[in-house]
Amino acid sequence: MRYFAAMFLAVVTLAASAEPQHVSFPTQDDGVVHADIYGKGDRAVLLAHGGRFTKESWTGQAETLAEAGFRVMAIDFRGRGQSHGGAGDSPNNSGFHFDVLAGVHYLHETGAGTVSVIGASFGGWAAARAAVEAGPGEIDRLVLLAATADEPERLPGRKLFILARDDVRGEGVPRLPAIRAQYEQAPEPKELVILDGSAHAQFIFETEQGEQLMSEILRFLSAP
Questions:
Q1: pLDDT tens digit string along 73-119?
Q2: Pairing label, strands 71-75, 32-38
Q3: 211: CATH
């Protein structure tokens, strides 16, 4: 009887330890970002959601990355959840990259040796801008999931551009040509991976290509 009680306690403890840690931290424009942290380790990954999502949309991917040994932070951008910009922020303000930078700084300040960023769609645009403005070595690797960048020629570090081949914008314009052009402008080291299908950004995880997408991301983040 005591054996089964101990087993039950172990299962409960394991389940509890899998719950993400909720944290919050300031941005440089006096905003506040709320985030969930999964796993432990000195290799950190920040997840920046797309325009239709919140930090909870990354739960499955965050758990997979944590199981692979990464410390994972999923942020809510300003205007989502409890996150917000500073007093001068507005819906038209482009301070979203401050949210990414704040998360990167928090991870470094709390023990991360390296920080990589995965940005999906709108979140990828913010992540790319953050990477350009970050200090040397602050962002180790950058995954742009169906995302474009303002200044691709200035993107530092290792870069993975990845999207579905037939992904189109609302007006039916394919995203691949513009992203391929940005890939060509970006400095080495870089990779471009094109998946089958038409799903956009995080929606790919819900398709039969989701496993391959996760596999490509893990390969890229884990490579020496």
A1: 999 999 999 999 988 776 666 799 999 999 999 999 999 999 999 99
A2: antiparallel
A3: 3.40.50.1820
